[in-house]
Write a structure and sequence with these properties.
Elements lengths: L2 H7 L6 H7 L2 H17 L1 H13 L17 H10 L2
C-alpha cells in the first residue's frame, strides 16, 4: 500500500464495515477520472473511454487489481495527469 493509503487506514480497525466502506473509494476515483476526461476532452471522448475501460480486462489481467482498496489510484493519477 502506498503512503496515502497507509496514513489514511493505519488508525482504522480491520472490520467488515470499514473494508466495505473503503472498498467504495475506487469506484468513486474512477468516476472522478471520467469527470476529468469529460471536462477536458468532452462528453463523447469520455463515453468512448468509459466503454473501453468497462469492456477491457487490462486492470484484472493476471493481477490482483480487483476488489481491494486503492488498487485503481495509479490509473486515476495517470489519466488525470494526461487530461491536464
Amino acid at each position: 500500500m502506498d503512503l496515502a493509503g497507509l496514513s489514511a487506514f493505519s488508525h482504522l480497525p480491520a472490520s467488515e464495515g470499514v473494508l466495505t466502506a473503503t472498498g467504495l473509494i475506487d469506484p468513486l476515483l474512477i468516476l472522478l477520472l471520467f469527470f476529468v476526461i469529460a471536462r477536458t476532452f468532452g462528453l463523447r471522448v469520455m463515453l468512448y473511454m468509459a466503454v473501453l475501460w468497462g469492456t477491457s480486462d487490462f486492470y484484472t489481467l493476471g493481477t490482483n487489481l480487483l476488489g481491494a482498496t486503492l488498487r485503481q489510484d495509479w490509473l486515476v493519477a495517470l489519466g488525470s495527469g494526461c487530461a491536464r
